[in-house]
Structure formats: structure tokens, C-alpha cells
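Bump. Still looking for FprA family A-type flavoprotein C-alpha cells.
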Amino acid sequence: MTNIHPVGVNDRHKTLFEGLWPLPYGVSYNSYIIDDEKVALVDTVEVDFFSQFIDNVRRVIGDRPIDYIIVNHMEPDHSGSLALIKKYYPDAKIVGNKKTFDMMRGYYNVGNEEDEIVEVANGDTLSLGTHELVFTMIPMVHWPETMVTLDVTEHVLFSGDAFGCFGALNGAFVDSEMNCDVYWNEMQRYYSNIVGKYGVPVQQALKKLAGVQIDYICPTHGPIWHEHIARVIGEYDRMSRYATEPGLVICYGSMYGNTERAAEKIASAASRAGVKNIVLHDVSRENHSFILSDIFKYSGLILGAPTYNNGIYPGMEMLLSELAGRCIKNHYLGIFGSFTWAGQAVKKISEWNEKHMKFELVGTPVEIKQSLSAETEAACEALGKAMAERLK
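Sorry for the wait, here they are.
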């Protein structure tokens, strides 16, 4: 990339992204300078990192002014430094779409004057000299104002959160200069946690970009993609179609171990019947970020929980809400539950599926009174075997 410079920062301190999703490998907030006859800054970074950010910018352009600040996405981890950068470069014009400026004025009271903004619509262009930029609107990937910027001169796509992933950058910026192994699972988790609900808008965005020559993808999180562009686009296409691979995720809640023992019986039976990819998740002990990622990946899902306060165990109730909010498709569902004197868990999970998900029900739901008996243990094994046969 000629005269395109990463000027973003790494966040190795935050433990939860959006206060929800663990960051075991950190996260990057990517920003880019296009250094041409006119200087353009593409997106900014979270405001806590402004001091480092402005040093990165000045290291590239020295005392030159910034002519344009392009805002592809208004989420504060990318727009948070906007008000401050404008104080350093007051004459820079802010480039965005109508919805961008509506949000910008509300967040930062910036962009109020007509002479300080350049409002663009789908297909509009901007010349920096050598670099010619084209703007494409991709609403709801994953906010309504989201757009991407294509440098048609060098075939570089500045993609905002699209094609991003968790994980800080460890020295290098471009995928061809690093080991990318850690980023593939982090991409799956990022997509399932953050973008998962918006499969249809992602598919629409991919159609808009189909046939466009793209040699580099510069997202706002994670590596710059060059060597692995085909794989990255393929991953986003797969995930946004809710495509899965054969495998089984068993999610359970358990207060005293009885529901957990049932989950183990189901897993053993599924394994004996030939399922190799089996993951068990305790909804109370594990952050749901990792559970959601595995559910997005594998086509088999078995949910089990005890009855709690004449309803469903809270950790499972939360997971059901999270799944419904992501519009997940293309799964097979098994159900089990336990109770002491009045069973509700199996009923509640079944009602949730009928109302929200419409997953294909596999096997016979298992309801365990107090603890496993020979009869309910056999029923658990039958459920695991039935799921294995359906996955084949």
C-alpha cells in the first residue's frame, strides 16, 4: 500500500469489550492515514488512547494538516477521539453520511457547521490527488450509519468493523507478516458476539462488494488482510449465512450436579455414536461469549437446565435470550431438564424454541425428577444417540 499508514493503537488493558466480551488477547483500534496531496485520516480510536494516537499521526505527517477525517463507523471505540483530533486539526473536514452526522452531534457536538462536513451517499467519490475514494453504505453492519471506503487507486477497502476480529496486534500490521492462527477463532467469536444478529445486512454488503478488486482490507479491529482476503470474506459469508459444520454443543446449568451428570451422559452417548466435535459449556461458569461462538460453529445444540423459581435456571434463561437476539438458524435442538417437585425447564426451553428459533427438534426431551435413575439415564443416552444420527 503506497502512502497508506496504520496509526491505530492496541488495548491490552481492557478485560471486557463493551463490558461483556472477554479479551484474552486484547483488541486493536485501527486507524489509517492516506498521505496524498490531501491527507485523509480514516476513523479514529478510543479516546483513552488519544495521546498515543496523536503521536502516531504526527509520526507520519509531521506538521502537515489533515484535510479530511473519514468516519466509517460512529461506535465510540472508533469515533471517540474525534472531538480531540478536531482541536488539533480544526480545518479538517469530516466525511460521513447523514446518519453519521446525526450521531456525531449527539455524541460529541461536532459537525454542526456546514463548512466543516462533507456529506456523502452511496457511490459518491472523493479525490485526494492520486488516491480516489468511493463510499459504499452498508447499514446495519452493524450500526445504521455504517459505510466502507474503497481506495480504487490501490484497491484498498477500509471496512470499519466488517472483517474485524478481537486480538491486539503484536508488532506487525499486515497478515502476511504475522502468524494469524490466534485471529481465526477470535474472528468467529467477534462475529458471533457483536455482529451475529445482522446476517442479512452482512450478506447485502458482500453482494455490494462482489466483483470489486480488493487487494487489502483494512478493518477497525485486527490485522490488515492481504494474503488471506479470500478466507476472510469466506468466513464472513459463512457466518452471515448461519452455515454450520457437524458437531454438538451441550449447554447446561446445574445447581447440585444432577443436570451436569445428565449432560455428561448425553455427551458420552453422542461420542460413542460417532460425533467427534463435542463441546460442553456450563452456563454459570463460562462467559457466554465463548458459548455463542461454539453455537455459531456447530449444527447440533442440546440445552439443559433445572427448574428455578417455577421457571428456568437464570444462566440458561440469559443464554436463550442471547440466542434469540442473534437470529441464529440451521440448528438441530435437543432438550433436557431437571426438577425436584414441579418441572418447568423442559417446557420453557420448548416454548422458547417454538416462539423464537424454530430449530428442528431431535429426539425426545428428557425430564429428570430429583436425580438420574436408570430410566432417565437411558433417556439421556437415547437423546445423545438421536442427535448423533441426525448430525450424520
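DSSP finds twelve helices and 22 strands in the chain.

Edit: fixed formatting.
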